[in-house]
């Protein structure tokens, strides 16, 4: 994982669909605040009705090399669709996971950089702010496994005896088991290793884009990589902690949550969304999930639901945000009845 790739190999253009985190357009009728605190994750809050106290909370978790801002548009639309009653107000908390976004500047997020500590950061955030425990956690890609770890840790009372288990965990296009070399095409590793081979400080965004083009990356991917820079002295550096992200990806690959899906805690629904055109799913995994979802509960355990998002690749919130909303919103509304 950590070794550098220094040869100028041509990178397939379909890498763009695996890594492109498109910033979404902003809707002016919503309220967004950005807050942070030392020792806790950076986050944003979104409410459709900012002048009313919220009654329900959903945490939104991005994927590898992403950030909270990638999910603003979808979260605004979700908050709006749930605000059908004057007495029910949903708050969306968009989190920058450790080593990502503004959380790279947060002190106290020490190694190991793995799924367990990434989920623990969420528990620390809720505890430090004195919030009620979230009703729902929605995680995309790597964030989906962080959400599963959060559910496991809540069930184990790892964040305190007064912990409240979420009612729903949403795992968006993230395989719950281990990701081995046999069921991975290695594209993620190639991107991370190539980024590691670049200087940590570059003269400018233009220089970086031109350099990436010379390495064989597509123009779109090169320009996206350029958006992940921030000013640092006379040059620019990454807006994420690359080495920390590499460690998180390794943990993502190694962790398996099949035991959680086979025995979900009572009162919890784990909803898996598989993108129809995603290349991350093999037949055995799909069959195993569908079998779990078809089992009738005995009243002493939670449940599993599986959903297929049509006309979408891995980037579900970009490829088919309307379809994703139509899957998620009705299930969240059921919590309010």
UniProtKB/TrEMBL annotation:
Pfam families: Abhydrolase_6. Residues 59-325 form the AB hydrolase-1 domain. InterPro entries: AB_hydrolase_1 (IPR000073), AB_hydrolase_fold (IPR029058), Serine_prot/Carboxylest_S33 (IPR051601). Gene3D superfamilies: alpha/beta hydrolase. The keyword Coiled coil does not apply. GO terms for molecular function: hydrolase activity. It comes from the Eukaryota. Keywords: Hydrolase. PANTHER family: 2-SUCCINYL-6-HYDROXY-2,4-CYCLOHEXADIENE-1-CARBOXYLATE SYNTHASE, AB HYDROLASE-1 DOMAIN-CONTAINING PROTEIN. Belongs to the peptidase S33 family. This is Protein ABHD11. It comes from Durio zibethinus.
